[in-house]
Write a structure and sequence with these properties.
The protein is an alpha/beta fold. Helix content is 42%, strand content 12%. Bound molecules: xylulose-1,5-bisphosphate (XBP) and magnesium ion.
Length: 253
């Protein structure tokens, strides 16, 4: 089967948005609302097991802040999250988070090779737009045939819903695509939708289980900055390009 499309996760895959974007925005939102909930990097590492900002706040309250009570928790959490999203977008506008190594290069090479591009993420759509527009320029939003984000689907990752949604929107079979992920929840989601997956880990996910991944790398690499292979078949490639992706996609993984 020929490789025709690449589907990218956003947080942790395209950029280290969790530590330098989302965590900062959650804490600034709590502060602005007069809440004394400051999440450390260590705590956030654990909270990341729950995808979706609103569910993550609720999980935090249930497990780490049981004394907090509110009559209308759903609406209260939704309002915190709304503020957090606006702060996150402002941080992106200020250029707080660059793309990870090799991401921009690979987008350009993939487009030149005629591969179709899409996004499948749990984060809020405004956050994706802000990251892309501020790192690649507004016009880059058009590079992606589908941007599947947030609660357009009933179940967030690790459910496969968001990938299945993107595949349906693209009207393409899963076996013609490759997914790019950084986390255990991400690969579970992509695999459930029938996709082969390439993993690039980060500080939060380098101890995760990635059973079934085609390869696990530290990042996509650049000509001057070779990737490190954590798991996968030996290759002469030192950075991820379209040739490497075609070879990976042809593998049984
Ligand atoms: C991303 C998420 C999101 C972000 C925060 O997971 O779980 O919840 O952490 O964004 P993935 P929101 O990379 O697997 O898609 O606050 O907008 O949910
Ligand atoms: Mg991710």
């Amino acid at each position: 089967m020929t490789l025709e499309a690449l589907i990218f996760d956003v947080d942790g895959t395209l950029a280290n948005t969790e530590r330098d974007g989302h965590l900062v925005a959650f804490n600034l939102a709590f502060k602005e609302l007069g809440l004394d909930w400051q999440w450390s990097n260590e705590l956030y590492h654990e909270l990341l097991n729950v995808t979706g900002g609103q569910l993550r706040i609720k999980y935090y309250l249930k497990k780490y802040n049981t004394e907090f009570q509110h009559d209308d928790l759903d609406n209260f959490v939704a309002s915190i999250h709304k503020l957090k999203t606006s702060i996150y977008v402002r941080l992106m506008d200020e250029g707080a988070v660059p793309l990870r190594p090799g991401v921009e290069r690979l987008f350009n090479e993939a487009r030149a090779a005629g591969l179709r591009l899409a996004i499948a993420t749990t984060t809020t759509p405004a956050n994706v737009d802000a990251l892309i527009a501020n790192t690649l320029g507004k016009e880059a939003l058009d590079w992606f045939e589908v941007i599947g984000a947030g609660d357009v689907v009933p179940n967030l990752k690790p459910a496969g819903d968001i990938y299945t949604y993107v595949l349906e929107q693209m009207n393409i079979d899963a076996n013609k695509c490759l997914a790019f992920e950084d986390s255990h929840n991400g690969i579970i989601s992509a695999t459930e939708a029938g996709l082969k997956t390439l993993i690039t880990v980060n500080e939060y996910t380098n101890t995760h289980e990635f059973e079934g991944a085609c390869a696990v790398l530290n990042n996509l690499g650049e000509a001057e900055q070779p990737f490190e292979m954590i798991k996968g078949d030996a290759t002469t490639s030192t950075f991820v390009d379209v040739g490497y992706l075609r070879a990976l996609h042809a593998q049984h993984c």
